[in-house]
Amino acid sequence: MPTIKITYSDPSYQPNAEALAGKLGLPLVDITDSGLKTSQNALAGYYLEYAIDGLCLKSAVRNEHGPIRCDFTSGASSHRRKYGGGNGQAIAKAVGISGKFAPQVLDLTAGMGGDGFVLATLGCQILLLERNSIVHSLLDDGLRRASLAGQADTELAAITSRISLLNTDAGSYLQALPAEPCADIIYLDPMFPERKKSAKVKKEMQAFHGIVGADEDASELLQLALARARYRVVVKRSSSAGYLADTTPSYSLEGKSTRFDVFALQKLPG
Ligand SMILES: C[S@@+](CC[C@H](N)C(=O)[O-])C[C@H]1O[C@@H](n2cnc3c(N)ncnc32)[C@H](O)[C@@H]1O
Prior knowledge:
This protein is α/β, with parallel strands linked by helices. It is built from nine helices and ten strands. The model has no long low-confidence stretch (mean pLDDT 89). It has two domains: 5-59, no CATH class; 75-264, Rossmann fold, CATH 3.40.50. S-adenosylmethionine (SAM) is lined by residues 108-109, 111-115, 129-132, 135, 169-171, 189-191, 212, 215, 217, 221.
């Protein structure tokens, strides 16, 4: 993983940036007007910046891509919450959500929390695991801001109350548990292979790839998950990808550019 520096757009965010730099053991850089006068404060590669709209990942290369942040209160996430198709969405069907049953989900590969947030919106209790400390920090900050926004939005408050997040490796987490059901559904969306996206999103995806790398242990995660899910394991893949670990699922559901491979272990209640 490249060295990431931590910075802040305004001195009022300095304490947050200092705390994060200390927690992650990463260098703190002052890019406010006074700080930039010192050449050691120059930025290169990627950096995490605290600013008015929260924590974001930026590239020091101008116009490479926009800031990468978790935003659950506006934009695409908020639009999907209101108009996304509810239980008719492929992800909802894959996980087995119905009017009578909203499962408890363990998401082994949280990433930026997009899928987890959709599932929580549909009523699932969800535990997100993310091992990469940079990605975890971005997600943690996004959830914190969503929770704050929930003070003026009861629906959003209910959604965020259903989400928990741990900064841990999912393989170690599962191995520490006995091989018996620990969640209704175990969900995984490993990093590789790359999905087809627009040029702009592709650049953001590349940045994300550079930070996270390929998820080489995804096959092992599937085996661990199959021994610990109560009803199903759901694997998200790009439409053109082969089955994870060459293991044929019970069936697959096609999303827009993705596919959900469902490993059914037991009939769902309801
Ligand atoms: C493709 S992203 C997931 C995207 C996510 N579904 C979303 O909607 O934003 C994969 C993420 O899983 C994380 N990951 C991969 N293997 C993991 C593991 N064994 N334990 C915890 N996190 C893992 C990676 O660090 C990466 O952030």
